């Protein structure tokens, strides 16, 4: 199950390149994100540009701000095969993935990260993806998949997903993101070290 | 190993042409071999897995942050550790750890470089504590820390360090700090330098960086590990709790944190993550890694309010009409902090020079990377302090690799503008200053060009110790004799005082004849 709400930019207001005042499931920490339709045109990614196979109708973009940041707080499931007990036994892994991109040869970009915290709120794990550089995109407009997996540390209770769009120049913040996903998987406990 | 024999070894290695082959992570060396080579040439580490030592930070009246990082092979990109390692910790009232007051376990994740940050709460105010970590059947060295007092406080002593380029010298200054009787330490930035090797060892540099410039998390982790290979730095961390800010070289020279091109954004995130992993930084709660929030205000009883500034993360480009060194949110926070300021000494931990500095009379500013590149905002902030009535304002600053004492005026070009505070810019721990000839020539020129500049000394290295009472703030400039000597003795070059309720500083008569390249009085 994807723990990120509205990681596909399909919910709530949007559809144009203009920033929205609120994004379903996300807190706008900085700037103003846009939820852009793949059919908008004007140089934005289209349905035929590189991107997720199932991409829906919209993607996230950075709007007109030099820096736009979205945060989503995630409570880890209390019960089940990936619940607190399984986490505390060292038997849960997380996978963070997202399609991240930008426009042509420009170096606008977007960074996706997840931070896990213990019950006291102290960070205990961190994974960062992107931004995908123009070089990595071969200067092609589009979105490219990035993924990382690691063990959820014992004691982790919450996570925070951070999505930061950054503008290298101009007026439009052309960091693009879609199909953001955070999943937990129960695994045999093989990674726990001795005290 | 004594200082002399270490120097002899360096010279011998250089003479034999072996240094470039032996120095860490040179081509063909495994991390283990590199570490061995580094240790042979003077670097050392605590026993594994606690090679990088222990530290504490952000002391409050009931809490302090404890830090360590497991790195059995400190210069390796991958540590020979499980992905998750359980780490125990103990806090006690005595150095033998018999009177335990708190204990617990936490986890060290490979995703955070196997670092551990433990905010220990429920502690007593104004109390000294000792602490230790355990992991993998091993125990760390024992660290010492202290909580902040509450209520009436008769005195506080603290030290400030800045700019510790590894290649420019050994950390005799940190050895001195470790031995000081201080309540806490403030680091003012340039804790590591991001660039690659400088060469010239041992003729021009006592040692060198381990490899090329840092760009990735692995690069910055290795660089932090290299710097902590100087025992004196680890000793200073283990001896006192630290407050922390950063300057540019924790990421890259002269950067603006708001730069938005993707390669830089990636590099900055890597540097910030490694900084967090390697520092006793208390997470701000609402911030989200890899973008830690480091500006904060702390109290030391009723005597001192310490405001830690972040002059890198949110700054715009320099020399813009509407430029900002603080960023919108931090500026608003700082102004409200001034508005709420209690009756106390108000000390700002300020990484880069606040006071105006012209290179010659009527000439241009020497460096607009410092507050001189953000004129409107500086004037706005200083006018706000003046109109708010906040008194007893002292700024402690790093970056310049030389000591300055300045009167702070809202308008530095207007001699009638009131003095509202004092800025003490400290010597660097090791990072090279200008030459003695430059200092001799330019000290008087800077003095003539900057009527608010009271003192300049650029031929020495060291740190400052501040002694604060309800009636006086004293800055003791501690200097080392020779940064090429790891155990170089520390002396006090001079002392400046600020009297409570009376803006402006004056030099202690007992040290007023000490060497300096500019002195107004």
UniProtKB/TrEMBL annotation, chain A:
Domain of life per record: Bacteria
UniProt protein name: Uncharacterized protein
Automatic annotation (TrEMBL), chain B:
All copies of domain PhoD-like phosphatase metallophosphatase, residue ranges: 158-475
Keywords: Hydrolase
Single annotated GO MF: alkaline phosphatase activity
Domain of life assignment: Bacteria
Pfam families: PhoD, PhoD_N
Region annotated Disordered, chain positions: 498-521
Protein EC: 3.1.3.1
Matching Gene3D superfamilies: PhoD-like phosphatase, Purple acid phosphatase-like, N-terminal
NCBIfam families documented for this protein: TAT_signal_seq
Residue ranges occupied by any Phospholipase D N-terminal domain in the UniProt entry: 52-147
Bias (Polar residues): 511-521
PROSITE patterns reported in the protein's UniProt record: TAT (PS51318)
CDD domains: MPP_PhoD
Protein name: Alkaline phosphatase D
